[in-house]
Task: structure prediction
Amino acid sequence: MKLRHTELSIPAGPIWLRANLAHAPDVRALVIVAQTAVGQHESSREAYFAAALQAQGFATLLLDLITRHEDERDPDVRFNTPLLATRIDAVLDWLDHQPPLIGLSRGLCANGTGSGAAVRAASRAEGRLHALFCRGGRLDLAGAGPLATLTQPVFVVAGRDDPGRDMIARAYALIRTEKKWQDIGHAGALFVEPGTLETVSKLAAQWLDATLPPPTPASAPPEDAPAT
Result:
């Protein structure tokens, strides 16, 4: 499948978020890959992760949750989970108005502090998000309420050697919807160990393929509608 890659700027309140959309007419679904890094759409670990999903027939939206200006001036912004969650909300609003993407089910993948933001956004996005995949990360930053009110299926992959694994597990225990947990041996918090990111990417692609609903056909015009 040959995908078209398009660099985008998506409005989110007073700022614009950089994103890269990889899409083709016959994709399986759309997966939003949220990252708190900036502008590394070809070389980041999230870019590798997105490419692995594309190889399995998914469209992807590789999304920066913070701007370059914020990254340079306010490094703590990536810990502002409520703010990052509202930016995911804004991206979902934008997607609702993109005709080529309407009808595709949506998955959301995140890691680090982005996992907490993803949980918060997903907890209020019933019907607009269909699955949530977290590569470890700060689920606890979402808060107990959003964790407990998720309705989408959730898959959390954690490194067995991640110092924060127990904290992730405690947050995971608060999730009441359909959920799945997978430990990755010899992996830390960032999955930089050889082969670990590849393993996680395969797990994500397999799970999303089994979990996300198929595309919804475009609504047909009424029978008495004039031909165009």
About this structure: The chain has one domain: 4-211. The longest strand covers residues 4-12. The CA atoms of residues 25 and 100 lie 8 Å apart.
